[in-house]
Design a protein that fits this description.
Elements lengths: L1 H13 L25 H14 L13 E8 L4 E8 L2
Antiparallel strand pairs: 1-2
């Protein structure tokens, strides 16, 4: 785990995961910034991904994204899904 934290810190420092970076993440502040309401978090992830793809997310826009991936887990990791959204 410590190795992953160091790797993430390195990506933060070099800008990889920051807005405008190669792998931008959590542009909205993440699920905990929304209070992490169970059930609504997956909907929120999909809405933000769709807004990125339709260029309607305002200041969080990442240029012209063509594809987005949403990953969510529920309960004790018994409900898992990955959705891939493409711009049309």
């Amino acid at each position: 785990m410590a190795c992953r934290k160091r790797e993430f810190r390195r990506h933060q420092h070099d800008g990889t995961v920051l807005p405008g970076g190669r792998l931008s993440v959590s542009l909205s502040g993440g699920l905990k910034s929304k209070g992490h309401p169970v059930g609504a978090t997956g909907v929120s992830q999909h809405v933000l991904a769709a807004m990125q793809l339709s260029c309607t997310v305002g200041a969080m826009q990442l240029g012209s994204a063509r594809r987005s991936v949403v990953h969510n887990m529920g309960g004790p990791a018994v409900a898992n899904y990955v959705s891939v959204l493409d711009a049309v």
